[in-house]
Amino acid sequence: MGRIFFYAVLVAAILSLAGCGGTDVVPRDNSGTKVGVAMPAQQLLRWNRDGAYLETELRGRDFDVDIMFADNDAEKQKTQLEQMIGEGCKVLVIAAVDGDVLRPVIERAQQAGVTVIAYDRLLMGTDAVDYYATFDSYAVGRMQAQTIVDKLGLAEGKQGTLEIAAGPMEDSNAKVLYAGAMDVLKPYIDKGQLTIRSGQRSQEQCATPGWATLMAKERMAGLLKQYETGSLDAVLAANDSIALGVLAALKDAGYGSAARPMPVLTGQDADLPNVQALITGEQTMSVFKDTRLLALETAKMVEAIAGKQQPEINDTQNFMNGKKVVPAHVLKGTLVDASNYKSVLVDSGYYSTVDIDGTASRALGVK
């Protein structure tokens, strides 16, 4: 109930800003056109915001919106999509829990004449996905890795220790993210400048199912046994929910003191608890992906589809899903740390100072 209330408040807050230029509304009658929005998990702040922004942008264009959250349960999301198709949705916007599980229902949508937009997670192995709206995950991975290179002085020949907390194998974005990071870090690992004491280096070995904070914490607690002597210098954490789990394990192991300082810790999404960790120095960086813009561009795509027009696409080469190159609209992320969080996150209106200074968001962390 708490998550539902939080989501309702978030939507109301966004709607209150819409009249002040918060949305880019195209005057066209879309009433009667139903759009299904399938989000992976309401318990993650990232997807709460995406869902709220999408709902606001689409309703602002007079679409009938059916939005559902799947609690990171792929079978539940499959059932939700089947329901959306049965209820006459003409467009589906899908942030998949597991694209492999969804493939049959996506192909059923194609047969029913429904347009499918993959939202920030590419749907793999099917030609039934029509478009993709996303951020450049490869560039995000490179930003995370370059932070480690810079902070540890690897380019100057210094050495350090590293552990990797990757995203889930079932998420295509996690694979691209890992590839971007390893393209930067692999030369230093191969030369022995970066040592991974656990020996866990492949994405499969380092994966965090469901991007789950608790699983990241439990795995990191085990890895830290390798560092009872010496110290861990850096953790490549794929996103902020994983970084929270890593951070909790580090604190439990005594990191964060003068004798044992926090390692370099990466993330992405600029979730509120992580922004607070940036400010306190417990997390080194995150990558801000302005989901307001992603929701806006996705709504524009839906608008064009409803009007039987070609959506605005800026990438027709890089997103091969195993069956087709999916035309995409790609946005860039912004590195955020303690030095620029205010200009990037507060001055842009994404968060308020009350959001960042308040205590409510701290409850989302892992104790």
Automatic annotation (TrEMBL):
<dbReference type="GO" id="GO:0030288">
    <property type="term" value="C:outer membrane-bounded periplasmic space"/>
</dbReference>
<dbReference type="GO" id="GO:0030246">
    <property type="term" value="F:carbohydrate binding"/>
</dbReference>
<feature type="domain" description="Periplasmic binding protein">
    <location>
        <begin position="38"/>
        <end position="308"/>
    </location>
</feature>
<feature type="signal peptide">
    <location>
        <begin position="1"/>
        <end position="18"/>
    </location>
</feature>
<dbReference type="InterPro" id="IPR025997">
    <property type="entry name" value="SBP_2_dom"/>
</dbReference>
<dbReference type="InterPro" id="IPR028082">
    <property type="entry name" value="Peripla_BP_I"/>
</dbReference>
<keyword id="KW-0732">Signal</keyword>
<dbReference type="Pfam" id="PF13407">
    <property type="entry name" value="Peripla_BP_4"/>
</dbReference>
<protein>
    <recommendedName>
        <fullName>Periplasmic binding protein domain-containing protein</fullName>
    </recommendedName>
</protein>
<dbReference type="InterPro" id="IPR050555">
    <property type="entry name" value="Bact_Solute-Bind_Prot2"/>
</dbReference>
